[in-house]
Design goal:
It contains 38 helices and 26 strands. By secondary structure, the chain is α/β, with parallel strands linked by helices. The strands form eight sheets. It has an eight-stranded mixed β-sheet with strand order 6-15-14-13-11-7-8-22, sandwiched between helices. It has a five-stranded parallel β-sheet with strand order 2-1-3-4-5, sandwiched between helices. A hairpin with a 3-residue loop joins strand 17 and strand 18. The radius of gyration is 30 Å and the shape is globular. The termini are far apart.
Length: 912
């Protein structure tokens, strides 16, 4: 039996233990009672012992049923045991326990299993009442526990919209483990009898407990404070849950306390009906989908359409003789809900006052923002909205050079003076990392020294990057605020919307860090720390500031924006995105300009299906985001382990680890890999708490240079064309596999099978290869794994687009529009006239954005000087797609006369 250390997740451990127990008990049932192998029975006993540490945290099958199974084992009733274990395992696999009671006796089993199959259809499942579990925390005896559960059960009514079962645990520690382990829990009832310590001791459960908080916080705590403290701790790890505190303390004692996620306090009473109704009301508040519900109701109304959209109600399709296949493919509902109306119970995205407004407010609650706005044309538009709303012509914006192209175009539209920040390079894998905090601080300090800090408006960073590198968001914002207290932060979280719903990942999301910083800046401890540090830094040179971990001032303003591609990582139709805002000055300074920018970039005909999917996607993550994200991480970890530990795959492939993608100086925890074949799993929590950068485990970068194929060929010719496996990102010698909340263990298993088949085919190919064929293969491998072109840094803006020579900001807007006049531009061939001009000492300036795919971001922007390093990189590129570059003409550059005609760039407007 595999050890606990072989598992990253207790949920995966539980599922595998039940499956193993089903196989073992089936084998026991086939043996004659007198000939049971001792080893087989011993394995069954080990599995029961392992599950006994896990099952107390789940309502199904429940400890009473679990103890019944153990009695069957002790009485050698192997056939009955095998049947009962089969029923439990099947119910866990199919989710049947969510829909009905699961008897463990042999009665009506054929009909029940037939019913289970019927309920697997989407239509039938949509008609069943959702199921969840309620955690009751109280140190009670077995009879008292049965009494509690019985009272909960007796409160059920036919008109209840949900079904729930109770799980009872005795201690604060058990409660923390339960909410981190059992994804079915939606509400917690904290009663006065809870104790502190758990009586269970298990390696993987201890790991879960460590994520909730330091044990030191309990050292001097009195038992009467355990309940309120539990509510606060649960808010830290699963803020979407509802808690209900039953207490014997006075109103005065409770009134001033921080009760975390507690929705209501009950004073020393056993009013189970009132508690039951509050639990249902709390879950119903998260289950609500105002716009999706309004759209469903609208689609049921008989309407006559004398407006736009012939496709509305499906009329143009049902009357057609030629496009009936479209109607058959999509079904009727999508057309019944397709409309341009904003009345009839619907709403306007541009000026929401009804269900869209309410849906956005619910999304704001779910993602921890102060305001949230929906977008139906992707995060590219969200980025432009935020930049245009906040940045004025002449404002200086610091931006990572390898960010999404929408930011660059947004800065052009806003007329920003751009300071490009260089990420650390990963030359070996032809990709960039992320921007070190030292680089950000250095640029801010240079601008301060030049007297330009008042013009610095925004820091724009991508979190997480396409390749999965995640910033220490809290530290970046705090140290930057210590230099520029009113700096605006825009975090592009296009690939990070799911992070809010993992306790580990959440601590590096923009909204969570903004809320934490806002609270921290108000504390006396923060004020004292800032005052002491400022005394030490008085008259200190910039290099001291660079080396010091800076403390944000109490007067700092928290101004944080996050843009998210909901459709990329959560449930939404394509282009469904959100803008999340936590800006203390939004109401007084930004709201009107934000509204204008939103109007500028948002269609007057937004797609209602996308808006409805955003609404439903928010409902999903509030109720089961914790479960789905946990399973997503599990799938990625399983993939990492399978590839890393497979000897055949290691011959040709390598999973890149944090040690490969993050230099040592940015990994303070010392963690190099999440999985090691000798040591097993490393808990991510430590590095996610302290490191400058961490690696998102759900993004598995696979080095494929050992196969002799470059990343793009491996993606297209091998994975997609031969095996039907779709991926997105590649580099010169890597491919990126991303798990999401829809990834299953079966999908991972198929991928591993495919990689093994590819490795076996390569073995066969090399076995049969001639000497020359083998030499050619080795040459291709060496070229991909050893002979890699160095990645160029941002060179600089040409002097025509810079206000001075002191700092590096450039006027990208002027350069961009200068190229609109064809007379200002010329085309030079990379290996011909362009190289010759550079050899002759001529300074060449790009007139276009040049964006190769991969890596998918500009290596040249309008107004940027073309360096020899950039030229060498472009010549070494072996990709088929380079936006902005014309193979038939060459690279577009500015003429010398055009550059001479540009007056020295000056700031258009000084920020206040």
């Amino acid at each position: 039996m595999e050890s606990v250390s072989d598992y990253y997740s207790a949920i995966q451990l539980r599922a595998d233990r039940w499956s193993a127990l089903r196989e073992v008990t089936a084998s026991l049932a086939r043996e004659a009672p007198s000939k049971i192998p001792a080893k087989l029975r011993g394995r069954a006993e080990d599995l029961f012992e392992s599950l006994s540490l896990i099952e107390p945290y789940w309502a199904f099958p429940g400890m009473a049923a679990f103890d019944h199974l153990r009695r069957q084992m002790n009485h050698n009733s192997y056939e009955d045991l095998a049947f009962s274990v089969h029923r439990v395992t099947r119910a866990l696999t199919t989710g049947a326990y969510r829909r009905r009671h699961i008897p463990l006796e042999r009665e009506n089993t054929e009909q029940e299993e037939h019913d289970d199959e019927a309920l697997q259809s989407l239509e039938m499942r949509a008609l069943t009442k959702p199921y969840f579990e309620v955690l009751i925390v109280d140190n009670v005896s077995d009879p008292q526990e049965r009494w509690l559960k019985s009272n909960v059960l007796n409160m059920r009514r036919a008109e209840d919209p949900f079904i729930y079962e109770a799980v009872v645990v005795p201690s604060l520690e058990d409660a923390l483990i339960a909410v981190l382990f059992n994804h079915n829990i939606q509400a917690i009832v904290v009663r006065p009898g809870l104790v502190l310590k758990s009586t269970l001791d298990n390696e993987i459960l201890t790991k879960y407990l460590n994520r909730a908080g330091s044990p030191d916080i309990f050292a001097n705590m009195s038992p009467e404070d355990y309940g309120p403290e539990l509510c606060r701790l649960v808010q830290r790890v699963r803020p979407e849950l509802d808690a209900y505190l039953v207490t014997e303390r006075s109103v005065e004692d409770i009134a001033g306390m921080d009760l975390g996620i507690c929705r209501r306090v009950f004073y020393n009473q056993e009013d189970f009906l009132e508690l039951h109704l509050n639990i249902l009301r709390g879950v119903a508040a998260r289950n609500k989908t105002p716009f999706f519900t309004a759209l469903v109701e609208y689609s049921k109304q008989p309407t006559g359409v004398f407006h736009a959209m012939p496709i509305s109600r499906g009329k143009s399709i049902t009357r057609s003789h030629w496009i009936q296949d479209m109607g058959a493919f999509y079904g009727p509902n999508i057309f019944l809900a397709e409309t341009s109306a904003t009345s009839g119970g619907l709403d306007s995205l541009l000026e929401p006052h009804g269900p869209i407004k309410e849906a956005q407010e619910l999304a704001s609650r779910a993602f921890g923002s102060k305001q949230t706005f929906f977008a139906t044309n992707g995060t590219s538009t969200c980025n432009k909205i935020v930049v245009q709303a906040l940045v004025r012509p002449g404002d200086i914006v610091l931006v990572d050079r390898d960010c999404h192209k929408s930011h660059h175009y947004g800065l052009v539209l806003a007329g920003a003076e751009v300071v490009y920040l260089d990420s650390y390079p990963l030359n070996e894998y032809s990709m960039y990392g992320a921007v070190p905090l030292r680089e950000i601080k250095l640029q801010l300090l240079k601008l301060r020294a030049a007297g330009k800090l008042h013009r610095v408006r925004m820091l724009l960073l991508t979190n997480c990057t396409f390749d999965g590198l995640v910033y220490n968001v809290d530290r970046v914002m705090e140290e930057c605020l210590a230099i520029k207290p009113d700096l605006v932060f825009l975090w592009d979280e296009a690939w990070f919307a799911f992070a809010r719903f993992s306790p580990t990942y959440r601590q590096r999301t923009a909204m969570r860090c903004a809320n934490n910083l806002r609270k921290r800046l108000k504390t006396e401890e923060q004020a004292d720390a800032y005052k002491k540090q400022q005394k030490k830094l008085q008259d200190a040179p910039d290099d001291v500031w660079l080396k010091t971990r800076l403390v944000a001032p109490p007067h700092g303003r928290i101004r944080v924006y996050a843009t998210q591609s909901t459709h990329k990582t959560l449930t939404s139709l394509r282009q469904g995105s959100m803008i999340h805002v936590s800006d203390q000055d939004f109401k007084g300074e930004v709201e009107q300009s934000f509204h204008e920018a939103y109007m500028t970039h948002t269609s007057t005909s937004p797609n209602y299906q996308i808006i409805a999917s955003l609404d439903v996607g928010r409902r999903q993550v509030e109720l089961e985001g914790f479960e789905f994200v946990q399973r997503q991480i599990e799938a990625a970890m399983s993939m990492r382990r399978a590839i890393t530990s497979h000897p055949q795959l290691r011959k040709y492939f390598k999973v890149l680890t944090a040690g490969d993608m993050i230099p040592n100086e940015y990994r303070q925890s010392g963690v190099t890999s999440y999985y090691d074949t000798e040591q097993g799993w490393t808990d991510m929590w430590d590095c996610w708490e302290q490191d400058d950068f961490v690696l998102d485990a759900t993004r598995v970068t696979l080095a494929v240079g050992g196969t002799g194929w470059d990343g793009d060929t491996f993606k297209t010719d091998v994975l997609m064309d031969k095996y039907g496996i779709q991926i997105n990102k590649t580099s010169r010698n890597t491919v990126l596999f991303m798990t999401n909340i829809g990834t299953t263990r079966s999908s991972v298993a198929y991928l591993i099978e495919v990689l093994v088949e590819i490795a076996n085919d390569l073995d066969d190919l090399l076995d049969d290869a001639s000497k020359m064929e083998r030499l050619a293969f080795e040459k291709r491998v060496k070229n991909l794994t050893e002979n890699y072109p160095p990645l160029p840094d941002f060179s600089r803006f040409h002097d025509a687009f810079r206000p001075d020579d002191v700092t590096s900001e450039g006027d990208i807007r002027t350069a961009y529009y200068l190229s609109y006049d064809a007379a200002n531009c010329d085309y030079l061939e990379l290996d011909g006239s362009l190289k010759a001009a550079m050899d002759a000492g001529q300074e060449l300036v790009s007139a276009s954005f040049i964006i190769p795919y991969p890596p998918g971001f500009p290596i040249l922007v309008p107004g940027q000087v073309i360096s020899r390093e950039i030229l060498a990189f472009m010549r070494a590129l072996d990709v088929n797609e380079i936006h902005g570059y014309r193979a038939d003409l060459g690279l577009r550059v500015f003429t010398a006369d055009a550059l001479a005609s540009v007056p020295r760039a000056l700031p258009k407007m000084a920020a206040k």
